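Format notes (please read before filing issues)

Several people have asked whether sequences and structure tokens are stored in separate files. They are not. Every record keeps both together, in the order shown below: the sequence lines, then the token lines. Line labels are part of the format and must not be stripped during preprocessing.
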Amino acid sequence: GKTIVFSGDIGNDAVPILPPTEPISEADVVICESTYGHRRHEPTAERERKLAEIMRTSVGKGGVLLIPAFSIERTQEVLYAMNNILQRDFHTLVPIFLDSPMAIRATQVYRHYQSYLQFERSILTEPDRDFFAFPNLRETLTVDESKSIVNTHGPKIIIAGGGMMSGGRIMHHLLKYLSDPATTILIIGYQGKGTLGRAIYEGAKKVKIFREIVPVKAQVQAIGAFSAHGDMDKLTRWLRPENGKIPSHVFLSHGDPEAKEVFAVHVRHELRTEVTIPTYGIAYEV
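Then the structure lines:
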């Protein structure tokens, strides 16, 4: 007779494309993700402002802005934000490449099912009626088109898969541009332990790409508000069911050990409930 709720990935607050996270109506036990249970993202309102600033700085110094992005949701959010920025804040014709076959095809799905999406303004009143397109966006679907990006000289922005820099077309761009001080790497998603992205994010001076040692001289930036995972505050709010009854037990999953430990202490204090970080192979009775 107990209600057990599995969180899955708890999304960020105020995502401009997707509807709000569905709340828990009631729960006796919750198995909750804890990816960012140890930190707080910058306010969502800062997301576009910070992205515009990074774009403007990168273009101003004539460099390449590399954005490793997950093909579904993250890429579309970035394109939507860039569409807003280019219309309102930063008027430039610098080429912006979307260099991921999966992201290109996924974006077509978003366009097709746009009636299910939510926007902070009436996007369909724009002349092109397209919230993921702007004049300087170039979609490079084929391998040859991807390879030709290097022939575009001067400042440019490249959005490429994959998100943790452990595979995908971003690897070829990192090999080419990571050692250039004029390059900026913008991290907008979670970087798992052991990935190239995590090493770069944590300040590695050199990394191995395709068996080649590459010095990291590019500037590394991050915008946590673009993450697909909610932060400590969002997860804590979500753990409070609508019926007002706090779950008697919370199990934490999907997070690095330090994130789970910090969030476990936080939840015990905030919700005054039992919190367990499960051990592999151990059965728990609730």
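For reference, the curators noted about this record: The first strand starts at residue 4 and ends at 6. The chain has eight helices and twelve strands.
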